[in-house]
Design goal:
There is one protein chain. The chain is of the alpha/beta class and 98 residues long. It has one domain. The protein is 45% helix and 16% strand. It contains four helices and four strands. Strands 3-2-1-4 form a four-stranded parallel β-sheet, sandwiched between helices. α1 packs parallel to α2. The longest helix has 14 residues. The protein is globular and about 35 Å long.
Length: 98
């Protein structure tokens, strides 16, 4: 839970363009949606985009329908490519990852 608080503090203090979250267990889907809502609520950047990826989405891509993120990635290389594209098109160029 310390990582959760650390990331919420970070988005309150700096206007990040993108927050990246990795999920590894189906047990965390409900908590993830609550966390995404908290990130959006506390973010200095009202246009914060949230990307979710990780092993769970790789094995169960249909879970994308249950997660309220803007962007999904099933592998690290794709996630980095997407993040670079988002940062290249925004002015603050800040990315927060958990």
């Amino acid at each position: 839970m310390a990582d959760r608080e650390r990331l919420l503090k970070a988005v309150r203090e700096e206007a990040f363009d993108l927050a990246g979250i990795s999920i590894g267990s189906e047990v965390h889907v409900t908590q993830l949606n609550d966390f995404i809502a908290d990130l959006r609520q506390h973010s200095r950047n009202h246009a914060l985009q949230v990307m979710v990826g990780g092993p769970l989405l790789h094995h169960q891509p249909e879970l994308k329908n249950a997660i309220r993120a803007d962007i999904f990635s099933t592998d690290a290389q794709h996630a980095v490519s997407v993040a670079e594209g988002i940062v290249a098109t925004t002015s603050s160029a800040s990315v927060a990852c958990r």
